[in-house]
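call fold(seq) -> tokens
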Amino acid sequence: MNVAIIGTGYVGLTTGVCLAYLGHRVTCVDSDPRKVDALRCGQVPFFEPHLTELLAEAKSNLNYTIDYAQAIPTAEVVFIAVGTPPGQGGAPDLKYLESAARSIGENLGQHFTVIVNKSTVPIGSGNWVGSLVRTQSNGASFAVASNPEFLREGSALLDSLYPDRVVIGAEDARTSEVLYSLYRPVLEQSFAAPVFLPRPDGVAAAPLISTDLASAELIKYAANAFLSLKISYINEIGNLAEKVGADIRQVAKGIGLDRRIGGRFLQAGVGWGGSCFGKDTAALVATASEYGLDMPIVKAAREVNKKQRDRVVEKLLDELKILKGRTIGLLGLAFKPNTDDLRDAPAIDIAQRLIERGAHVRAHDPIAMSRFREENPNLRVTLTAAAEETAIDADALVLVTEWDSYQELDWEGVARKMRSAILVDGRNLLDRERLTQSGFRYVSLAG
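ret:
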């Protein structure tokens, strides 16, 4: 099939590369000519494991342009994957979505075209996009569908090729049939798996959820809100575990083995960040308020998450008493491992709070430091080439992002470099006994 992807950000590029690998002819449209030129040279604008390799495998089916007229007229399916950043009151800012919809309408061909909202958009956006396209399309034949993404940064290609489910929201059978044909290789798992991304054991097919537009749009928000609830819940239980002397890791394991609950997203720590949970929970609260509804559970999850970042500073104050003039090292900048995404990253909030209290902040990240320099030029953080360098004459270290490489550090050597060997484990990742034997005063957020 001929496919157009509007937007080459995280969702758009990942979707485009995967569809091209499956054999579809994909044209990616972006308004930034420098990004388009870089992609034509095989340069990916963000870090995602194996994306560069998959792009190389699929390059014969990929084109890039800044011109809608080169992509839309021949496309049978058009994905809108533009940004929907938070606006006032938590509702998403839809200016990029509106611009994309109007431009698509101006360039539609004479054949039937399915326009797919891939961006996370408020409930009702499918109807709105349809009206915008219609005003510009001069009677062209099209339909709008919702196909929300459920990608985990750091595992996005696995989630795209071997998904838990594919959700399609459409108002007519013809639209659903087009998208079923598009996704057939994924639904039936009939494609040859990349050598570097082998098919997981037991994956023989992907479930398809075929529903109406509004339900598909709400599925996305409800899924992210529920995951954010799990994280905030275990953090709240972790705060109680600290008071009563319980081991939060054992508590999480004990409740996670219940099949009704599951163990994923039950890791206590500094809380969630990234582009999705904060934005989507805010949007869900804003949407509910439009209908006179309150969402106290979702609001509470947001508040608990915010407080976890403050707890890092509180732990450091408990240990050091005074932060002014102290040197604090942060291990990890990205909001999670295997990505360089810094959107709503806990490390940035923690660094800002420490700097406001007069501390000197050093930081290291295996991947995200160049992006950090670009996006935070005015934040007074000293970046170090190696994780061990953050410890030189430091008064404390904080593990913020659970990169595997941090588990393998020579912790005895790290302790010797420090003025005072204090480590706040913001992810409950490290072995308390090992760190204690290495000479650290080990502090977790949950005991």
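DSSP finds 17 helices and 14 strands in the chain.
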